[in-house]
């Protein structure tokens, strides 16, 4: 299998293959830098890689073709969980914002599975789409959408820097965050997925007493993906 330079072991450096002690028995466990876990040969304990480095695979849409389907899914889950932790750190005790972000993520994942697009870009944008809320409230006394769109991208950019996210991927996700309410300056597939996931999450609060006709009009005119419209109809249009 041909791999890109970021994953080809011929381009690895000293220290990309290393040993750590098994926390259970103290036996040496050898790791490659991109292995999430290995089983200790001595006591059979599953040991997590404390230096896991996924490189370009964590953001590349071709990761599954490069590394195989099972590892591609593992890469997605590892990166997704790291960003969820970052989001929770920013929101702290604000469980309302955390629940909202996770609900948007759930809808976004369902839409992306049908519509396509880069799964990690979709997940990252869903998790961090409202990341500027607290900063907006602090600076402007309001969490209004325009203020979130101003304050969110710089916070997301700092998070991505900590995880060595490529500049082009960071730019795309930050542009989604900067337009997730207004939709003015972007129309990528990943953006449309986040737009619909956010609207699906907000419908119960925004239109609590809307009748069937009004909900159908909202679905027909506001949503940007076929799967988003399907989920909305199945969830909110009751027979």
Fold and architecture overview:
Helix 2 runs parallel beside helix 4 (119-128), helix 3 (95-115) crosses helix 10 and helix 9 (212-222) runs antiparallel to helix 10. A hairpin with a 6-residue loop joins strand 1 and strand 2 (28-32). The chain contains ten helices and four strands, in the order E-E-E-E-H-H-H-H-H-H-H-H-H-H. The longest helix has 23 residues, at 69-91. The protein has a single domain (55-236), classed as Hypothetical protein af1432 (Orthogonal Bundle), CATH 1.10.3210.10. The model has no long low-confidence stretch (mean pLDDT 85). The protein is mainly α. The protein is elongated and about 65 Å long. The strands form two sheets. A two-stranded antiparallel ribbon has the order 1-2. A two-stranded antiparallel ribbon has the order 3-4.
Itemize the secondary structure elements and their pairings.
Layout: E1 17-21, E2 28-32, E3 37-39, E4 46-48, H1 63-67, H2 69-91, H3 95-115, H4 119-128, H5 133-140, H6 145-162, H7 167-177, H8 189-206, H9 212-222, H10 226-236
Antiparallel strand pairs: 1-2, 3-4
Helix pairs in contact: 2-3, 2-4, 3-4, 3-8, 3-10, 4-7, 4-8, 5-6, 6-7, 8-10, 9-10
């Amino acid at each position: 299998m041909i791999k890109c330079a970021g994953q080809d072991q011929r381009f690895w450096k000293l220290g990309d293959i290393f040993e750590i002690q098994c926390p259970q028995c103290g036996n040496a466990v050898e790791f490659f830098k991109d292995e999430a876990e290995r089983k200790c040969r001595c006591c059979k304990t599953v040991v997590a890689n404390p230096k896991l480095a996924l490189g370009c695979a964590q953001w590349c849409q071709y990761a599954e073709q490069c590394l195989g389907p099972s590892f591609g899914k593992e890469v997605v889950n590892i990166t997704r969980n790291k960003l969820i932790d970052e989001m929770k750190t920013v929101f702290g005790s604000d469980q309302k914002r955390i629940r909202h972000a996770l609900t948007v993520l759930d809808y976004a994942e369902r839409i992306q599975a049908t519509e396509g697009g880069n799964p990690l870009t979709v997940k990252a944008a869903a998790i961090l789409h409202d990341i500027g809320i607290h900063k907006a409230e602090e600076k402007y006394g309001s969490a209004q959408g325009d203020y979130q769109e101003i304050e969110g991208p710089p916070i997301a950019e700092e998070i991505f820097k900590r995880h060595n996210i490529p500049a082009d991927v960071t730019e795309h996700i930050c542009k989604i965050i900067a337009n997730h309410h207004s939709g003015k300056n972007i129309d990528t597939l990943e953006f449309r997925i986040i737009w619909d996931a956010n609207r699906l999450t907000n419908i119960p609060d925004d239109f609590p007493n809307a009748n069937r006709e009004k909900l159908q009009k909202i679905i027909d005119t506001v949503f940007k993906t076929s799967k988003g419209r399907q989920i909305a109809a199945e969830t909110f249009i009751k027979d």
